[in-house]
Automatic annotation (TrEMBL):
Pfam families: Arm. The lineage of its organism: Eukaryota, Metazoa, Chordata, Craniata, Vertebrata. It comes from the Eukaryota. HEAT repeats lie at residues 230-266. ARM repeats lie at residues 229-271. This is Radial spoke head 14 homolog isoform X2. PANTHER family: RADIAL SPOKE HEAD 14 HOMOLOG, RTDR1.
Amino acid sequence: MADARISTYLPPNVNPAQAAIAYGCRALPKLNEELQADDLLTRQKALMALCDLMHDPEHVYTAIRIGCLESLKALLRDTNDLVRIKTTEVLYIMATHNVGREGFLEHSVIQALSFLLSDPRSACRENLYTAFRHLAQVPAGALGIVNSGLIPSLVWKLQREEEEIQALLLDTLAACLTEDATEALASRAVPFLKEKLLSANSNIRSKAAHTLIAISVPLEGKIQVWQHDVIPILVHLLKDEEEEVQANAAGALMNATVTTEGKYAALDVEATGPLLQLLGASLSKARLNASKALTMLAEAPEGRKLLQSHVATFRVLEEDFSPAVQRAAQIALKVIEWKP
């Protein structure tokens, strides 16, 4: 007759580093209690479990309602590195949901996260900036970051973080500067972005050019782009090997050439040639931005004279599959063919 034996192995699919999740509606309240526990291992296991649960927006809603955000804010100051890393991970997962972003704004999570901008652990900072990037995707979130006074710090950090984090910072800044670029302009963001345009990493070049589009919307931004000699670099990027870089460089030129100084700075470095080449790009955004930038240059007599021999190219764009490109081509033709 066989003897009954108790296995020495753990049951299958059991993670010993994660807290056991209570059944039903008791799950999140129990984890919230464990987040406040004195025992370090208990806090770590609770955070591991929350990382899994926060992918569901219903769980995010419940977590916010029972006060998990306040517990997580307290853990951001924990002395244990793993606790801070997993806390920021939970928060950035929550920020992927609209209900989570609303919770951030209602419970002042932005200010709590700002204390970790100089955390010694890069994983913690990466999670923090990922949370900010997700939050900035909605206008209220971007404005919340601006109103928290963090823009000068984010601009300063752009010079000191590793490339993976720089990409997150540039995404966040681009969204925030669309709402208000005042603090960034006062923090010498344009010279810093100019340096990023020269990066060997095409992703950084693309995101830096995209951020320049946002910062050059206000007049002061246009003036600074011209004053800091960014326009020749943007024209050079029109011939970049990456189409996304070309498109964003054309977009930045579109804004920078609104001013008379910007127009002539671009004409001096022969911007019309590479912009005309972009009119045949496969990326509709590149064609659109190039059309608008050429329209700006055509407002100068010298630019109009250069473009009059390329009217046929714009006629072709009037039949483009993109309605936005069609309208841009029609406006460009009106400016180019205008006679005093």
